[in-house]
User: What shape does this take?
Amino acid sequence: MTIATKRRSVRVGTLALTLHLLAFSLVAVAQPTGKVHRIGFLRYFACPDQFGFKDLRQRLGELGYIEGRNIVIECRAAPGKWEELPALAAELVRLNLDVLVTEGTPASLVAKQATRLVPVIMVYVGDPVASGLVSSLGRPGGNVTGVSMNANEIVRKDIELLKEIAPGISRVAVWMDSTNPSHLPAFAAMEATADRLKVRLQRVEVRTATDLDGGFAATLRHRAEAVAVYPLSTMPVDIKRIAEFAIKNRLPTVTNTAAYVKEGLLAGYGPNVPDQYHRAAIYIDRVLKGARPAELPVEEPMKLDLVINGRTAKALGLALPQSILLRAVEVVE
Assistant: This one.
């Protein structure tokens, strides 16, 4: 072998080694560290419920976090039993979490009370400033940040939607739970819009499934012509009961929770569910890489969806305006 040939072989070998090391370094940068991160999830819905959960897992996977490989997700939930949330939050905090995801205002408040050290990423929260979760949207200031529903604006749109569906209505029963810190500010915002539309709102307190019969009676007693349903501490079967009651009594229904439309309520307008949980996953990624929640601004909804239940519309004998059907991202049949 000539000297020139040897030199070429050395150069080729060196280049191959350099490319190999470069490729290895790029893979290392693209992947999260070898540590197994422990993520807590304090839910509003039941843990097996795929509402939002599958979207959170999907986006985490796209970011390189795979359950059983480099993350463990510890889920706790008490659907219909908010009084159990403090004990569940304390249980999760004892697991030495790297981050805690919370679903809804009550769960988020409980988590904030349970820990000042574990980063908390909230999702599906009505008004995080008014409820005391953060100091401001731009600078949360504590260990809590995440995604807001901007509920006060959404409920204004909900009552406008209800009036568009049924222009003749003048009395609307609002099913709500005033122990949920986001409900009273939302009701005030909805009432301001209702006054403009010449609609009278009537509060109906429904905290758990045991209050449903009383809610039905109150709605009939107030001679409501439609029903608005805020997020409640109930199970899907309870929402089906509300939908059946409304259909039986020819009452159009509206909500800001898309899952309720799937259970039979007529119309829902609110944040795009996958988007809320995809963005929560991005917060998780940033926190696991060292970002401080106090310095991560709270984000408001970027995507808002209108969902219509076509079966319910038919059962109510409603011919929905074409303008509504064209705006709907989904019509459940």
Q: What stands out?
A: The mean pLDDT is 89. The radius of gyration is 25 Å. The CA atoms of residues 142 and 294 lie 5 Å apart. The chain has twelve helices and twelve strands.
